[in-house]
Amino acid sequence: MKRSSNGGLVYSTENGRMCPACRMPLAACACQARAAPVGDGVVRVSRQSNGRGGKTVTLVKGVALDPVALVLLGKQLRTACGSGGTVKDGVIEVQGDHCDLVMAMLARLGHAPKRAGG
Q1: Which domains does the chain have, with CATH numbers?
Q2: What is the Rg, in whole angstroms, of the alpha carbon atoms belonging to the chain?
Q3: How many Cα neighbours within 13 Å face the side chain of 13?
Q4: pLDDT band at 93 (very low <50, low <70, confident <90, very high)
Q5: For residues 14 and 25, is the Cβ–Cβ distance under 8 A?
């Protein structure tokens, strides 16, 4: 169990991350201290291999969802592609070149994806 410098609980093994303002688990946080959705609403799907040791990664940027929903969407996309990945700074990363599959899955989920970067 970790505590922040001002004495508030920031992580609990029972509930995970805690909101610093209302001291509730992030999944149950109802205050306005939660981060606003990241993204401009235009979902861009691109492929990148620069700076990754030659490994290709599919990137999904601009999804206007809160951080918890973004992590769940990332999990759905990784499961559909059958590969690993992560969510960093509002960007979903899926290992491998899965642009077409990710775009089809996003369209099925109600987003309007656009191909970016050629």
Answers
A1: 1-34 (no CATH), 43-115 (3.30.780.10)
A2: 16
A3: 1
A4: very high
A5: no
The total of other beta-carbon atoms located within 10 Å of residue 101's CB is 18
Please give the Cα distance from 35 to 17 (Å, whole number).
14
Residue type at position 66: D
Give residue-wise pLDDT tens across range 11-62.
656 667 777 777 777 667 777 544 555 556 689 999 998 888 889 999 999 8
Tokens of 94: 């899926």
Written as six digits, the tokens of 74 are 């990332």
Q: Which of 112, 113, 103, 30 is nearest to 66 (CA)?
A: 30
Question: Within 10 A of 28 (CB to CB), how many other CB atoms are there?
Answer: 10
Q: What is the pLDDT of residue 37?
A: 52
